[in-house]
Amino acid sequence: xxxxxxxxxxxxxxxxxxxxxxxxxxxxxxxxxxxxxxxxxxxxxxxxxxxxxxxxxxxxxxxxxxxxxxxxxxxxxxxxxxxxxxxxxxxxxxxxxxxxxxxxxxxxxxxxxxxxxxxxxxxxxxxxxxxxxxxxxxx
Amino acid sequence: xxxxxxxxxxxxxxxxxxxxxxxxxxxxxxxxxxxxxxxxxxxxxxxxxxxxxxxxxxxxxxxxxxxxxxxxxxxxxxxxxxxxxxxxxxxxxxxxxxxxxxxxxxxxxxxxxxxxxxxxxxxxxxxxxxxxxx
Lengths: 139, 134
Hints:
The structure holds two protein chains of two kinds.
Chain A: H1 5-29, E1 45-52, E2 66-74, E3 80-83, E4 95-98, H2 103-135
Antiparallel strand pairs in A: 1-2, 3-4
Chain B: H1 5-9, H2 12-31, E1 41-43, H3 45-52, H4 76-80, E2 82-84, H5 99-132
Antiparallel strand pairs in B: 1-2
Helix pairs in contact in B: 2-3, 2-5
């Protein structure tokens, strides 16, 4: 019978990808959130994935390694400076600062995350089917 | 005449265990499809199954060694048979998972697992026939 580890592994993948989807959604939603101060403008967030090894195992020794989000980093893209003197948030010189979010990049990231999520769902479904078939063995 | 279940089932239990192990490894590959520096792995099925088979011509699982599959000793044997995949197009972040290749392997492995189950079911059916005599 496929061990219950598969559910943990696929589940960790789904959770990691949904964090990625969340950050993408946040980045896209805030892509136009301008600010009058270049230091307080929104910065794109990206999760960093890492292999989750069980505590005492040597790397590579464990068959099924799940994935974990080891942190979320903020992009260091410079904010885009725009001259909009009529904007209520404009600074003294009439500039507003838009986040340096690359919308195309975010969309690609979103598609990649959703595909990976679907993969994990399929893995889980198949593992469940195999386990159920194993339970019916000999009947 | 006593029925030796192990002998009757042959290599199938070992194969089933190995295939379930492989499901796990490929699931890990797919879960880590976007993890930097993750190296895709797979089970060397032929080597692992040969290791599982007992000496001699019959591919019978004999639990005479701690590293044999199916013994309570653990999973050392299966871990030894894990090999890294040769990447066709490794990405810049050091990840060698090819999602399509893994999907194909996963599907193939699932079918193989199910066919092993079918064979096992047949074995059990023939045992039932032998027992009931009908």
